[in-house]
Write a structure and sequence with these properties.
Length: about 675
């Protein structure tokens, strides 16, 4: 909405204000002026095209005056809104004011007195005095009468038939003004002789509008649309999914596949000519994404066309000693009228360009890689503590083996070597160990069973122990053999691994995009981090390079815009990327404009409407939602065990084979030596 107050005695000021009116794209103009002032304004507005068929002027009663015909500069087809009287349809024309007041005032006063309670008395003599020193003059009974007069009503003005004397009632609101005004709407028409005259075309009364046919500006049957003229703007952008997604155009049609997106100027490309030379031409790409959909919606609702192009230095905009670069430089130098991409708002940028209302909230976040867990070589020992294994191996097994052997040794009915050794059964300490190990692991091997009852009972007790041990071990082993996903669980930008990366072993590696808002924020607020990244050259050219560096373990973490990182984590093919920690440096994404751009207010008006209607939320749900949800990145997860996860069992088997081969080789050599010595 454009508002201006004109001094018609200063024609230079009038011309300047009318030019601003035209720039505002307002098409319906409400004019409050005297008839003489209106003639001057129309005289200066006509050469500017402000009285053409695209505009509709609506004048007040003072613009129309008392004349029924019009001469001089004006707008044929304009409207005027007139009260029947000089004060909200309460009074007749000026020469009839006194008789009307004399007639209506007693009626209204009497109607108010009728509303007094029957037993209440009131003095009509005023107690107010101009000499009151305690405050403004007051009259309590007069104030009561005034409140009652606002509740009273009188019938329509008898001096004007159109007032509807029998149906129209003058009632008042709490401020003492009329609730319902009676307005006459007139249209400036052309007469057959070529002149102009005012013709009544409508009435507004009792909150009801009655209209006849109107002769609109330009002799049109319909009123002007009231919308701004289509204008063309140049929009600068930069590739960053999901806000700006760049793809190739259809080679057959030269358009975006499926007509989804907008054709954008993506720089120059060099091609070969038939003569064998080189020729530079514009490289056209297809741009789509959140910001393109938002831009198309603004273009349709506001009414403009646009050319979308990529900033040539491919920089977001960082202020250096020589000035701004990237997107911000194009806006400052008026190469572009808008910047539409994931451009973050900050105070330094806002000093040199204008921003729209933010269309999305964001901050600075961290993304890391999820690494599949690998079981350690000693995973098969983890179901029990090491002290438990010591007790089992050095105490329980040894005690059981010696107990079975000793009970068998001293038994008078089995293996009493001191008295009568049996020739067919030789139960030794080694066979006792063999029995204990085989029973403990439920091995299907041949064992010698002791003969004595006590030894057999001891073997049964050991078998019960072995059953319990094996059951508990197996149950716990299933839990310990679950692979655990591993990642750097950082608390945020102030995590010690980020603040003191060189103190970690090995040093923690992280980076960000060179020349972006995150880089600028890091340089301004987190100087230690900036020096570390700059010293180790961990800056990357764009978001794609940063995410790939994390995937390929070239970086341990990547710091960037939270919304963009969340999109990349959600769209990752293997769901191996994860955002960690709290967001920092909260801000928002906005559309950039040159300073004092005429488009800023118009875009802000529509952005507010989009927020209220949920259009921005629908765009976010469509473009920013990925398949990888944060819930899928749990601390643990079940997965098939590969060879690397079961190395402990293979190490145990391999160690046993190597050990047995060593023992066999040793005994084979000893046997060969004895045999050779014998011969």
């Amino acid at each position: 909405m454009f508002h201006s107050q004109l001094d018609t005695s200063n024609l230079t000021d009038v011309d300047a204000q009318l030019v601003e009116l035209k720039k505002s794209q307002a098409k319906i103009v409400l004019l409050y002026a005297t008839a003489a002032e209106a003639r001057t304004i129309f005289e200066r507005a006509t050469p500017l095209g402000l009285t053409s068929e695209k505009y509709l002027w609506i004048g007040t009663q003072s613009v129309r005056g008392t004349q029924t015909s019009v001469t001089g500069h004006t707008q044929p087809g304009m409207l005027s809104v007139n009260f029947h009287t000089v004060s909200n349809a309460m009074f007749a024309p000026r020469d009839d004011v006194l008789p009307l007041i004399i007639q209506l005032a007693p009626k209204l006063f009497g109607a108010a007195l009728l509303l007094l309670p029957a037993n209440e008395t009131m003095s009509l003599e005023s107690t107010a005095s101009c000499r009151d020193v305690d405050g403004p003059p007051s009259w309590d009974d007069g104030a009561k009468i005034y409140e009652l007069m606002k509740l009273a009503f009188v019938k329509g003005n008898p001096f004007h038939v159109d007032d509807g004397h029998d149906s129209f009632f003058y009632t008042f609101n709490k401020y003492g003004t009329l609730k319902n005004s009676m307005l006459r709407i007139s249209n400036l028409r052309k007469n057959p002789k070529g002149g102009l005259y005012w013709d009544k075309v409508g009435m507004f009364t009792n909150n009801e509008l009655r209209m006849a046919d109107v002769e609109w500006p330009g002799d049109k049957a319909n009123p002007p649309q009231g919308t701004a003229d289509k204008f063309h703007v140049k929009v600068v952008t930069l590739h960053e999914p999901p806000f700006i997604i760049v793809s190739d155009v259809d080679p057959d049609t030269g358009r975006c596949p499926g007509n989804q997106g907008s054709i954008c100027d993506w720089g120059d490309e060099e091609i070969d000519t038939p003569e064998g030379g080189k020729l530079n031409r514009t490289l056209w790409k297809c741009c789509s994404g959140y910001c393109v959909d938002l831009l198309n919606k603004l273009a349709n609702d506001i009414g403009f066309t646009y050319t979308l192009y990529k900033v040539r230095d491919e920089k977001w905009g960082l202020k250096t000693e020589t000035g701004w670069n990237g997107l911000i430089a194009d806006l400052i130098n008026n190469k572009a009228d808008m910047c539409v991409t994931s451009l973050k708002l900050n105070s330094e940028r806002a000093r040199d360009i204008d921003f729209s209302l933010p269309f999305l909230e964001t901050g600075i976040a961290i993304i890391v890689k999820i690494r599949s867990g690998v079981l350690s070589p000693t995973a098969f020992l983890e179901p029990f503590e090491y002290s438990t294994w010591v007790v089992i191996l050095l105490v329980s097994i040894q005690g059981a083996a010696f107990a079975i052997f000793i009970f068998e040794w001293v038994s008078p009915y089995s293996f009493n070597m001191s008295r009568y050794p049996p020739p067919d059964h030789k139960f030794s300490l080694c066979r006792s160990y063999w029995l204990v190990w085989a029973t403990l692991f439920s091995a299907s091997v041949s064992t010698d069973v002791p003969k004595s009852t006590v030894s057999r009972c001891m073997a049964l007790v050991w078998a019960a122990f072995g059953l319990t041990f094996l059951a508990v071990y197996t149950a716990n082993l299933a839990a310990f053999m679950i692979t655990r996903v591993q990642y750097y669980d950082l608390s945020g930008i102030h995590d010690p691994m980020i603040t003191y990366p060189a103190d970690q072993q090995p040093p923690f590696r992280y980076g960000t995009v060179d020349g972006g808002n995150t880089h600028e924020t890091m340089k301004r607020n987190w100087k230690r981090m900036h020096e570390y990244v700059q010293k180790n050259r961990f800056f990357v050219d764009n978001i794609t390079a940063g995410v790939d560096a994390v995937r390929n373990d070239k970086l341990d973490a990547f710091i960037y815009d939270a919304v963009v990182l969340d999109y990349w984590a959600g769209k990752d093919a293997n769901c191996e990327l994860m955002m960690v920690g709290k967001w920092a440096s909260m801000t928002g994404y906005g559309i950039g404009f040159p300073k004092n751009s005429p488009h800023t207010a118009l875009v802000n008006q529509h952005m507010l409407q989009y927020q209220q209607k949920g259009d921005l939320e629908r765009l976010a749900n469509f473009w920013l939602t990925g398949a990888c949800s944060p819930e899928s990145h749990g601390q643990t997860q079940s997965a098939p065990l590969g060879v690397e996860n079961f190395l402990s069992a293979f190490f145990l088997l391999g160690g046993g084979i190597v050990g047995l081969i060593s023992v066999y080789t040793k005994f084979f050599k000893v046997g060969s030596i004895k045999q050779n010595h014998f011969y």
